[in-house]
Amino acid sequence: MSLKKVPLLRMVTGLLAFLLLPVSAVTVELKYMCYDTIECAAFKQLMPQFNAKYPDIKVQIDIVPYKAVRETLPVQLAAGTGPDIAAVTDPGGLSRYYLDLSPYIDVHYWQASFGDVLDWYRDKSVYGNGRFNQGVTDIGIYALQTQLTLTGAYINKTLFEQADVAIPAIGSSWSEWAKAAKTVAKKTNTYSPMALDRSGHRLMGPIISSGAKVFDGNSVALVDQGFKTFVEQFVGWFEDGSMAREVWAVGGATYKDAKREFVNGEVVLYFSGSWQVKPFDAAIRGAFDWQVIGSPCGIGGCSGMPGGNGLVGFKQTKHPAAVAKFIDFFAQENIYQQLLSLTHNIPAHKAVADEGVDYVGLSAVAAKALGSWTAEVDKISPIAFKLQGYKYNRALFDIVAKRVTQAVVGELTVQQAMQRSKADLNKALKNMN
C-alpha cells in the first residue's frame, strides 16, 4: 500500500502511539573472572546492593580455578578476548592491560583510602637490565585491593606455657625467636622448633628485615650483604635442627607449606601468612592456643611481604564507565567493610583498618589474630611494597626459592647460591624483555 493511500489520521495516531512507548534503559553486561570461592560468594551476596544502585549494569561472575587466572587470563588478554573485570594476584605482570579508573572515580578518595597499594598496579616498564623506565610517572588508579595479605609468623602458645619459656616480646630479633623456639621444642619434645613456607615470597620479608635493599636505585640488585646475612642464618637453622627440613626438600619453584605440621602441634613457630587464620581457626579449634607474632626484626625493620589480590578492569572492555562503577562501588567504605567482614581479610582501606572489621563467622581467637595482622601493616618496609609491585617479582621469587633450596640441601654453598641467584635473575630479565 502506498503512503498516499494511508489515511492521515491513522498516520498521526500511529506516530503518537510510538512516541508514547516507554523508553527502556540499555542494559550493560559485564563479565567478572573470579577465582577465590570465598570472595566470589561474598561478591554475589553483596550484588543486590549494587544492582539496586545500578539496575542497568548486569555483572556475570564466572568462578574459575586459580590456574586460569595465572595461565589462561594472560593469553586471553593478549588475544583481546579477556573478561571486563578480573581478580588478579600478579599486579605488575599484567599492568599493561589494566583500565585506568581515574576519569570515572573520586581520585582523592581513592588515594586517601588505599595509599601505597595503588602503585602495585601501575605500569612500570623496565629495560632488559632490570632498570625502571626513568622519566615515566604513572599516577593512574587501576585496582581495588580486595584481599591484602601479609607474611609473618604464628606460635603455638600452649607449647611455650608447657615448657615454661617466656614468649619473646614483639619486636624481638630472628635470633631471639629461634633460640626460644629451639628451647621450647627440646623441653616439650616437639618435632621441629620452626618452619617457613618454601616460597621466595615468604623469604623476602625476613631478607628485607635483615637489611637487604633488593633495589640499587632504579636497578634490581637482589643480592647484597643483608640478603646474604639472612640466607646464611636460614641455612644454619637447617644444619642445627632448628628448621623443618622436609618443607624445603622439593625442587624447582614448587610451593610447600607446613600448615598441617603446625595444626598437629609439631612446630613451635611457623612463618607463613595472614591467609592461614581461617584454616587454623577451623582445624585447631581448642586443641591448643595459638598467636600471631608478625615478623621478627632485624636491622632492616620487622617487615613481612604484602600480597593478596586486586579487582581490575581491562582496557579492551567496551564499557569502561560501567566497569569503573562496579569497582568503585566496592571501594566505598561501607561496602568494603562488608566485603572484608565476609572474606576475613586484612583491610587495605585505611579508614576501615582504623575502625576495625566485625568479622562474620570467626571465633574470638581468629578475629583477634586478624586484628594483630592489621596492626602489622604499618611495619611493612617501603622496599617490600616496591618489590610486590615489581613487574617481574614472580620470576625473582622462583629464583630465590630454587637457589636457597640448593644451599639448604648442600648442593651449593651460600656464596654459590647467591651468585647464581643474581645471574639467573639477570638472564630472566633479558629473556623477558
Question: If you had to describe this structure to a student in words, what would you say it looks like?
Answer:
The protein has 2 domains: 29-148 and 308-367, 3-Layer(aba) Sandwich (D-Maltodextrin-Binding Protein, domain 2); 149-305 and 380-432, D-Maltodextrin-Binding Protein, domain 2, CATH 3.40.190. The protein is built from 17 helices and 10 strands. With 433 residues, the chain is an alpha/beta fold. Helix 2 links the parallel strand 1 and strand 2.
Shape verdict:
globular
User: What is the class of the largest domain in the CATH system?
Assistant: Alpha Beta
Tell me the major beta sheet.
8 strands, mixed
Q: Specify the number of helices.
A: 17
How many domains is the backbone divided into?
2
Estimate the strand proportion.
Answer: 5-15%
Could you spell the SSE succession in H and E letters?
HEHEHEHEHHEHEEHHEHEEHHHHHHH
Strand segment count: 10
Write the SSE topology:
Blueprint: H1 8-19, E1 28-34, H2 37-53, E2 57-63, H3 66-79, E3 85-88, H4 107-114, E4 143-156, H5 157-163, H6 174-188, E5 192-196, H7 200-209, E6 215-216, E7 219-220, H8 225-239, H9 259-263, E8 267-273, H10 277-284, E9 290-294, E10 306-313, H11 320-331, H12 333-343, H13 350-355, H14 364-376, H15 382-388, H16 393-408, H17 414-432
Parallel strand pairs: 1-2, 1-3, 5-8
Antiparallel strand pairs: 3-10, 4-8, 4-9, 4-10, 6-7
Helix pairs in contact: 2-12, 5-6, 7-8, 7-16, 10-14, 16-17
